[in-house]
Write a structure and sequence with these properties.
With 504 residues, this protein is an alpha+beta fold. It folds into four domains: 3-114, Arc Repressor Mutant, subunit A (Orthogonal Bundle); 119-236 and 246-289; 307-340, no CATH class; 398-500, no CATH class. It has 18 helices and six strands. A four-stranded antiparallel beta sheet has the order 3-6-5-4. The protein has a two-stranded antiparallel ribbon with strand order 1-2. Helix 8 (145-177) runs parallel beside helix 12. It is extended. The two termini are 87 Å apart.
């Protein structure tokens, strides 16, 4: 926004701001009565009739001139009552609100209204939205555009009022919980009504929000209804030079789709993105125990119990009453216990005695053990732990690992022959061989259908797999594996060719 346009608010920071506000109120009141132009005499007469401090005509003329310079008013020559040549050359004006000045007045009205808004939880608005959604769902196959438009306008109007008032109420409620901008006596007087009010709204919200969400989900053909409302509004838009045919309708339709999306997000949500109605219900429910906690705090204050803030205030008074700095330091040590840390002793006692008042910057370096810094003690409490002999466990673990390695090596020798063999010809396998074969088949089949050649992830073995006709059965101690037969060639690439079982 340019500085020129913001000059319309310049009259608010002047010493005569009340006079300017009275004059602008006169222009706004006459505009609501469709009176556009006002003469200075008309403004002065209206100011005398408002019952406030009387204003001279000269003050009114000067104020109107200043408002015109700031851009709040527009002045046009007044030639309607000219009877002589002298009247024609005398500066006489008709004043009216400028576009910027009218916008500034509307902004100030909104500002004052929002400051004075108390806010409320409108359970009635929920019922109004629910009823109109039911009516919107029953408009039929050939709905009347006027009925559809009015229903949508009423739904959106009630939703805007519900949302704005809920935000204002919850903000004021939080200030009440924090005991800001409220007298304790007044709060205690109406606390019961406030809690009952919250409980009633939460119960209404649970029932009606569910019905509204269900109706929004089941409403068919909503885009056609929005188009009817947009077409009805677009018909009243004054034509402009830059407007293309159909552009106004699409703009209005986009606005209505945004409004409907806002209505949907207010009542319809999911697990990842809860709707605004659920958030409002959660906050209203949480406000009830918060209010009860605030009431408990107030009762404790009335019972004479001291709280932390009162303790600190009393301590501040004691500090202010200390006659010397030494007394203040004594009070500090007694209150907070933040005394010197010279009670920490080094592992090797220093021959030099260091006074307790010596600064750490001036004192010699003291070696502190890691355990002392971490736990505040040099040694662990209690008797030292006994050393446990883990020799037998290590031997058993080594024997188990050796046996497992031997089984895996035998399985590699049995399967990694380097010669083609059918799965149906492998015969019965022991658990180690079967586990190795499953791992190799899994890595080969993961490459896709057809003939494949792949190495294991550790690079130790290679398997070539080619499908053939028929089915194979591989028997093990725990069962039988059945599936399509394949020709496999398993090679241990870590061994020489002569040792692998094939020569060329």
């Amino acid at each position: 926004m340019s500085h020129t346009r913001t000059q319309v608010f310049a009259h608010l920071s002047t010493p005569t701001a009340p006079l300017y506000r009275r004059i602008m109120d006169v222009f706004m009141a006459n505009k609501r009565r469709f009176v556009v132009h006002l003469r200075p005499e008309d403004v002065a007469e209206s100011l005398r009739a408002d019952g406030a401090e009387p204003v001279a005509q000269e003050q009114v003329d000067n104020a109107l001139s200043s408002l015109r310079e700031w851009g709040n008013l527009r002045a046009d020559p007044d030639t309607g009552r000219v009877t002589t040549v002298e009247d024609f050359y005398r500066a006489r004006y008709l004043y009216q609100l400028s576009k910027d000045g009218e916008a500034a007045e509307h902004a100030l009205e909104v500002f004052e209204r929002e400051l004075g808004r108390r806010g409320e939880l409108q359970a009635v608005a929920l019922e109004d939205i629910r009823v109109r959604l039911h009516a919107l769902a029953g408009v039929g196959e050939r709905p009347d555009p006027a009925i559809v438009h009015n229903l949508l306008l009423e739904i959106m109007s009630r939703l805007d009022s519900l949302a704005a008032n809920a935000i204002a109420f919850m903000g004021g409620l939080q200030r009440t919980i924090d005991l800001q901008d409220i007298e304790e006596e007044a709060f205690l007087a109406y606390k019961d009504r406030l809690i009952s009010y919250l409980e009633r709204f939460v119960s209404e919200l649970v029932v009606k929000a569910f019905d509204i969400a269900d109706k929004i989900r089941g409403l068919a053909g909503i885009d056609d209804l929005l188009r009817l409302a947009a077409a009805r509004e677009a018909a009243d838009v004054a034509p402009g030079e830059a407007d293309e045919p159909g552009h106004v309708l699409e703009t209005k339709l986009a606005e209505w789709r945004d409004r409907w999306s806002g209505l949907r997000s207010w009542f319809v949500g999911d697990r990842t993105r809860p709707c605004q109605a659920d958030l409002l219900r959660t906050r209203a429910r949480q406000a009830i125990p918060d209010l009860l906690a605030t009431i408990s705090v107030l009762h404790e204050r009335r019972a004479g119990r001291s709280d932390r803030s009162a303790d600190f205030r009393a301590l501040a008074r004691w500090f202010a009453q200390c006659p010397t700095d030494a007394e203040a330091h004594r009070l500090w040590r007694a209150a907070f216990g933040l005394t010197s840390a010279r009670h920490l002793t080094a592992e090797t006692e220093s021959a030099e005695e260091v006074p307790a008042a010596t600064s750490w910057l001036d004192a010699p370096q003291a070696e502190i053990s890691v355990r002392l810094r971490a736990t505040g003690r040099y040694a662990r409490r209690g008797a030292p732990s006994k050393v446990v002999d883990r020799g037998p466990q290590r031997e058993r673990l080594a024997a188990f690992v050796a046996a497992e390695r031997e089984q895996a090596e035998l399985a590699r020798k049995r399967l990694a022959t380097g010669r083609p063999v059918l799965l149906s010809e492998l015969g019965e396998l022991d658990p180690a061989e079967f586990h190795l074969l499953l791992r190799l088949l899994g890595e080969a089949l993961a490459m896709g259908p057809g003939e494949v050649t792949v190495r294991t992830s550790d690079g130790g073995m290679e398997i070539r797999l080619r499908p053939v006709d028929g089915y194979a059965e591989i028997r093990t101690e725990t069962g039988v594996l059945r599936g399509p037969d394949h020709e496999v060639v398993i090679t241990d690439v870590t061994r020489p060719r002569e040792a692998s079982g094939y020569g060329g």
